[in-house]
From TrEMBL:
UniProt-listed Gene3D superfamilies: 3.40.50.1860
Family: Belongs to the aspartate/glutamate racemases family.
InterPro entries, sorted: Asp/Glu/hydantoin_racemase (IPR015942), Asp/Glu_race (IPR001920), Asp_race (IPR004380)
Protein's name in the database: Aspartate racemase
A molecular function (GO) term: amino-acid racemase activity
Statement: the UniProt record of this protein carries the keyword Iron: no
Amino acid sequence: MKDILGIVGGMGSHAAVSIFQQLINRSPAKKDQEYIEIILHNNTCIPDRTEGILYQGEDPFPELLRSVKLLERCGATVIVLACVTAHHFADRLEESLTKARMFNIVRETVDYSCRMYPNIRNIGILATEGTCKTGLWKKEFDKRQINTIILSEEHQNKYFNNVIYGHNGVKAGYQDEGLKNNLLEGCNKLMEMGAEVIIGACSELPLLISKEDLQLPYIDSLQLAADKLIEQYYCNKG
């Protein structure tokens, strides 16, 4: 029996549209009936993940739980969070499911990175403050004896936070060359710190940068997730 994919969106909405579009654009389907069956819950009630995790803001978990349970009731058999920082709650969310399973973008990306670059020892993580400070990627790469490199607090604010969260940032609907160049400068800083590969570990990044923009190998975790979900769907399709 084929899978039905559920997407928890709203973190932000542009990122949810981006992964949905990638799932369509990168699919091998030749007619309407061959595309992945997808249910998207664009839950704009989910509080900011970084604020909730680090700064005693409103807890995102209840709304994330509402989304995954809703998607499961609607028939989703595989559920993906269209936000990397939200994976801080992924294991707790999976425990709540009875029929569906969670697709974990972080673990899938770590597995892929280690297969593709088996000799790499230093990986740069371009991600939100919440993702970096909780060690979401570090915990997984530590198991493989691989070092993770993140931006300094100054560079995180200048080259990432302002790009994503600023008044004229991505979450406000802006996508321009200035924002892109700031992200690329953040990547350059990671490279200067010794990164041999960079992981784009935020769902908004595909809206601005791609591997063609960088000199180092660059892994877009959302694009990788789309490719893996497509692969799993067509392998399991009955």
